[in-house]
Every structure is written in C-alpha cells, then in structure tokens.
Amino acid sequence: MTANTSHTIPSYLNPAQLGPWGDYLQQVDRVTPYLGSLSRWVETLKRPKRALIVDVPIELDNGTMAHFEGYRVQHNTSRGPGKGGVRFHSEVTLSEVMALSAWMSVKNAAVNLPYGGAKGGIRVDPQTLSRGELERLTRRYTSEIGVIIGPTKDIPAPDVNTNEQIMAWMMDTYSMNEGATSTGVITGKPIALGGSLGRREATGRGVFTVGCEAAKRMALPIEGVRIAVQGFGNVGGVAAQLFVKAGGRLVAVQDHAASLYKDAGIDASALWEHVQLHGSIKGYADAESVTADAFWDTPCDVMIPAALEQQITSANAHRIQARLVIEGANGPTTPEADDILRERNILVVPDVIANAGGVTVSYFEWVQDFSSFFWSEDDINARLVRLMTEAFDAVWQMAQEHKVSLRTATFIIACKRILHARELRGLYP
Ligand code: GLU
Fold first, then answer.
1. 339 C-alpha vs ligand 1 centroid, how far in Å?
2. Quick one: CATH architecture of 21-182?
3. Could you report the per-residue pLDDT of 69-123, keeping only the tens digit for each?
4. Are strands 117-123 and 82-89 parallel, antiparallel or unpaired?
5. Is the pTM above the cut of 0.70?
6. What spacing in Å lies between the alpha carbon of 233 and ligand 1's midpoint?
7. 228 in contact with ligand 1, CB cutoff 6 A
8. Residue 362 beta carbon below 6 angstroms from any ligand 1 atom
9. Which of 182, 134, 123, 177 is nearest to 155 (CA)?
10. In this structure, which topology does domain 200-349 adopt according to CATH?
11. Is there a shared CATH topology between the 21-182 domain and the 200-349 domain?
12. Quick one: which of 77, 133, 153, 217 is 20 to 30 A from 147 by CA?
C-alpha cells in the first residue's frame, strides 16, 4: 500500500503551481545545511503561519458592483508582529503574496528588526479605478483584514502601486473600527498623520547604501559607473538619482511601458519629473528608445532590477553585462539565474538585504508613533545608513566564511535568528 501523504503536504507545496513561492522554497533548501541543530525547525519556514483570502466588494461609480480578491499572509511571527507591504496589481496571486511575506520574514531578521514577516495584496489594476473607487476598495479591504492586523499584530505598509494616501485610508479605516486613532497600525503614512521623514526615499537610499558597500569591496569606483535600472518608481527612481549624484552614469532604464538607452547618461532627475507627470518613462525625449529585450544586453557595470519578481531568469542571465546586480525588487532573480550569475562572477546583492531600507524606516516610523516623538530627517538617514552598513558587513563576512553567495549568507543569518526565536518560544499548546 502506498502511503497517503495528502493530509501532511499542503496544496501550496504542490510543485506544479509554485511561482515565486517555489523560488523561495529553493532558497530555504540551499540554506538548510548551514542551520546546524536549528534545522529541525526548518519546516516552519516552508509554511506560512496564517493566510487570509478576502472578498472585497465595492460599488463602482456607475452603480454596479465589483468583487476583487484580496490577501494578507503572515508568514512568521516568531520574532515579533507581522510586517510587510500591500500590493495592488492585476496579477497578484496567493502564492506570490506567500513568497513576498516569507521574504519579509528573512529581510526583517537580516537587519534585526523586531518583526516577523507578512504581506498583502489585491488582485486589481488600480489605474482602472477612480479615486473614489480606490478609496472604497482600500477601506473595505482594510476592514476585511482588520481581524488579523494591528499595531502589535501585523503592520501593513506600501508596496507596488500603493502610496501614502492609501496608507492614510487604511490607518483611518482601522482606527474608525477600533474607535481610537491608531497610527502604529500602518507605516508609510503621510508626515501629517504620524509618517516618518525619509520613509518615501528609504528603500532607494538603502539600495544605494549597500550598493556602494558592495562596489567598495569589488574595487569598483562609483565615479563614472554605468547603471541600468528596471523600474523607475520609489525604489529604482530614487536609487538611480542617488547613484547619479554620487558620480554614476544612468545608461539604461526600463519600466512597464518603455525601455530607454543613452550611453552619455540619462538625466535622472529630469526623467523622474517626467514620470511624476506622465506615470511612466514612455515619451521621455532625451534618450534612445530600445526594445524591452535589448535592455538585458545593455553595456553597464551595475544593474538594479527594481520592478517585479522573476525578471532575471535562465533565459537572460547569461546576457547581463554588469559586474554587480543590486536587487531593489523582491524576488527578481530565479535560483537558476542566481547560479548562472555566480558562475559568471557577477555579484548579486540580494533583495532581502538590498531593499531592506524601506522596512527599516517603517520600523523607525512605528517606534516614533508609539512614543509620539518625531526624529529629524538627518537622524533617520544616519540611523538607516548605519544599520544597513552593519547588516551588509555581517552578510559579507558570513559569505566569506562559508564561501556562499550573499543570498545564502543573508538567509543563514536571518533563518538562524528566526528559528532560534522559534525554539526559545517552543510550541504552544
Ligand atoms: N514593501 C516594502 C518591502 O517589500 C516595505 C515593507 C514595510 O515597510 O513594511 O520591503
């Protein structure tokens, strides 16, 4: 008789439908040999603690009803409350949100924030909604996930296609339901509502900070360095501008609508202005327009994928000309592509350390909200740079010690912290 394992293997471990969650599971497998006796707990990393699917019905402006699918996944809460953004995207799936929530657990532990990991999303293209529809969608979603979020339970924040205004509506909805203003339930809020100075630029600033640390160790000078960026929003756009200010040359930019190239260097702040006005880099005149596929052949020194998951794959990894890849996005490189880049001696600074600047300043925001005492922007940026530099240094040393990639090194540090906390807490009941 064959053993019936269907009651022990959850459906989300089905290899046929994994997507980015499958990439994450492979990353965990790669780190397991380095976990020592803590590896007996590793299975907890392969299953989200809690996953909520919600129906989000709203009335559209034309009087009809529309239903959207929403999610909030708490991957792990061993080290503290769940923490992670909310993404509005037409192709969001439960398995994608599971992967994103797991990467939050790893990221938060890697920089030693007192948080677990969580993520949320709504399967919607927000561009198709009016402002009123977007507000109703956000408020209903927040009410639906209100049963599991809270300032000491799980703290949402911005992610792809969500912004300060959406965070303000989320904070207000939660507070109305509670009957008391609760600023600490959401981070990434407007400054006027308990938001933190420096939060908006924090992810890009963190990408720049660890990018410079990596470049220093490779003896790659920032002066004159050629940068290619995929995604020119809050992460890629800010990081590109900081690199250009430091003497770098922005030679290529790609977003969902266009791909641009200019060997002499694109004016990053003029392009930023263009994006604020038109919603994309499309139509920016002072660069050559190239095909989306040609972006991967760009002659450059540093590539910053700062858009979505699974962009660098076995299909294009062998074409990348950069010496350094800094992952502004979450999960942009598949495990197969990771191996190809490593074989080609291209250094990858992984998402779980490279883009941790956003959640780090979210943590500062949360702390400021609890004490109702707000810090200066200089203070915030200085703390951010110190924390990221120290975390990167620890990752670098771990990678040298075990002769592993920076991704595996980050996972070793983070997974040990998570599983150590798990072991100390024990199983209840
Ligand atoms: N969405 C961001 C991330 O992926 C920030 C999350 C947060 O601030 O909680 O890291």
1. 26
2. 3-Layer(aba) Sandwich (3.40)
3. 999 999 999 999 999 999 999 999 999 999 999 999 999 999 999 999 999 999 9
4. parallel
5. yes
6. 14
7. no
8. yes
9. 182
10. Rossmann fold (3.40.50)
11. yes
12. 133
